[in-house]
Write a structure and sequence with these properties.
By secondary structure, the protein is mainly alpha-helical. It is built from 8 helices and 4 strands, in the order αβαβαββααααα. The longest helix is centred in the C-terminal third of the chain and has 25 residues.
Length: about 290
Amino acid sequence: MSNLENAGTPENLALPLKVYWQPGCSSCLKTKEFLLDHGIPFESVNVLEDDEAFTELQALGVRMVPIAARGTTWANGAVFRDVAEVAGFEYEGHTMLTPEEMKDKVLMILDAAGRYLAQIPDDQLDDILPGRPRSCRQLVYHVFDVPKVFLDRVEHDAPYTYEALKSILPDEMKTKDDLMAYGRGNRERFAAWWDRDGATTDFKQPGKVYYGEVSLHEVLERTGWHSGQHTRQIILMLREKLGIEPDGPLVDADFAGLPLPKNVWDNERSFDEQSYTDTAETWETAKTA
């Protein structure tokens, strides 16, 4: 959720705008691009490199990114109308695909991610990506997990939390086959949910998610573009880090209608950088929670 108290007041707008983010984070990149597209200056704070960043976030009562803040007024970057309110301009919105069109995109993305996982050599699954402590294995798991968290919400009314979307695999998911099975299972479950409940689901209902007041339609859209953006990163990883041409690479036309960021990795940091660290993030070492 956001804290919009005093947002838009002259006193608050006189304060500097800060955006807290980390490389490879889809919502972080979208937040920065959103503000840049509207000509809004901001101080860019990479929380993995700025020693003061988490002290400042904890003072706001949060330990997550992206966050756009002026003083003690802040918005979760996943809700653009809240970000616009903190930044001081009116959010105009955009036209969303229909839920059925979004469903087709999600299934397409899950199928593609499964193909790409099959191409990653076992001995390179735990290679670490540039700029953050996330492995290739964790990146693919995250693509599979985003739709699963949506399904838990619509099928079981499970809490849709920041922690639920962390890309840290369960201890029992040890092999590539385990991960492949997880992806197939979520794909089958998503298709079955739609066939059973898609036509009767009220997508105007509240989304009931950690990041703000949005509709279920908006949560479904985020499920599509969030998993889609990370699938673009898998394609980039295959080509640039592993020297492998993706099996049936998705292109911009495949994602048409989903509000993906312009950049695939980041607008400030290069994917050509060396790995961030030697080991992937764990629950014990995670900075955001």
